[in-house]
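Students often ask why inverse folding is considered easier than folding. One informal answer: many sequences map to the same fold, so there is more than one right answer. In these notes we will look at a single instance of the problem. The structure comes first.
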């Protein structure tokens, strides 16, 4: 369940370029000096974006050694100071979508500073500030397995515990996607590591640059590798540094991924590359299932190593992914993985987002069954249930 504002409610840019009356060597030297000036870029959040929940604040300085520190401010309040790359820190934007001003200040080694402001968007409200909404991501295919687009809201019907629900939120195109890719780098993956790294890089290279991708590695612990990266190059470099060692905290990694996505609005997917064997998590399989039930995350698992051949491990990956509306993929062939990745990315770009305020609004920590049906000769895959967790 996610808290979404009940009613959803521009900026101007100016630039000036001054040219000197004389050209020649002086102009060339000035251009060279400008090219060598330190540069500051705000990577997250994006200007004009809608944010809620856990949001990474990220900035890039070129060259990195040109600054003594980078300071992040939110709504006039200093949030954190970072003295070395990566220049990033965590921020909780809250459960409602309101306008925020983020200001990043880079203090230069030689004195002076560079300032970059970013303003996120808010949403207006009238009588009600927010409502509790259950969010459901749905995938629709026709009789030939092709993804179906362009269906209207009126074609979808949702019931909870066999009681019809009213769809209040609907999106069919350009729905924001927050994607987390978690990669098993435990010792048990050693024999399959090179093949898995190739598979992960191929998958990440195919993710459209407009989507933000957080990459996690996990063995005994969960290791953030990139946060909200849009650059394909950054994603691939992070994979190259992976090495197999330690135990397997699979359940901890999934829990960390779900918590990272938190309360953000929009489609949220986690893709896990693993053999499915957990050897040292602090939480149990039942704990992870309960957390997935209380989230809006769609989980996809991609079996690797022994997870392709051992039925017990395959069942674990299927058991985790299927109830969320996701699925498990199992293949040892790079060519087959290529086709599977293309299909998965195609699926992620052809999904519908439905939201409804449940008629049973009691948060009693019980499981509520969800059924999504559709007019027409189509097949639909969506979340099967959710847990009405108490408000936090």
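Output (designed amino acids):
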């Amino acid at each position: 369940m996610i808290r979404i504002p009940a009613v959803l409610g521009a900026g101007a840019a100016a630039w000036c370029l001054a040219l000197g009356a004389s050209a020649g060597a002086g102009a060339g030297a000035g251009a060279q000096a400008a090219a060598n000036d330190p540069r500051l870029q705000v990577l997250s959040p994006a200007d004009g974006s809608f944010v809620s929940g856990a949001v990474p604040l990220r900035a890039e300085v070129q060259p990195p050694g040109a600054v003594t520190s980078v300071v992040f401010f939110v709504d006039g309040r200093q949030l954190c100071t970072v003295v070395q790359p990566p220049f990033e820190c965590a921020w909780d934007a809250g459960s409602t979508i309101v306008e925020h001003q983020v200001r990043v200040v880079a203090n230069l080694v030689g004195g002076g500073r560079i300032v970059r402001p970013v303003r996120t968007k808010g949403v207006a409200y009238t009588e009600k500030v927010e409502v509790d909404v259950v969010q459901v991501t749905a995938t629709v295919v026709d009789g030939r397995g092709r993804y179906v687009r362009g269906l209207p809201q009126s074609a979808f019907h949702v019931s909870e515990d066999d009681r019809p629900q009213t769809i209040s939120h609907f999106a069919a195109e350009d729905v924001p996607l927050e994607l987390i890719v978690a990669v098993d780098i435990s010792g048990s993956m050693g024999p399959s590591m090179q093949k898995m790294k190739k598979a992960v890089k191929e998958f990440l290279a195919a993710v459209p640059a407009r989507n933000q991708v957080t990459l996690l590695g996990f063995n005994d612990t969960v290791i953030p590798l990139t946060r909200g990266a849009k650059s394909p190059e950054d994603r691939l470099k992070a994979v190259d540094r992976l090495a197999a060692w330690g135990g397997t905290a699979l359940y901890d990694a999934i829990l960390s991924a779900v918590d990272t996505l938190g309360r953000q609005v929009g489609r949220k997917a986690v893709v896990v590359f693993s053999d499915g064997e957990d050897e040292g998590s602090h939480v149990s399989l039942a704990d992870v299932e309960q957390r997935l039930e209380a989230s809006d995350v769609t989980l996809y698992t991609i079996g690797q190593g022994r997870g392709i051949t051992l039925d017990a491990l395959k069942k674990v990956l299927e058991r985790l992914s299927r109830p969320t509306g996701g699925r498990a993929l199992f293949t040892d062939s790079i060519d087959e993985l290529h086709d599977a990745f293309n299909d998965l990315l195609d699926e992620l770009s052809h999904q519908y987002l439905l939201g409804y305020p449940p008629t049973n609004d009691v948060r009693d920590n019980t499981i509520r069954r969800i059924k999504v049906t559709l007019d027409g000769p189509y097949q639909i895959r969506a979340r099967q249930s959710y847990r009405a967790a108490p408000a936090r």
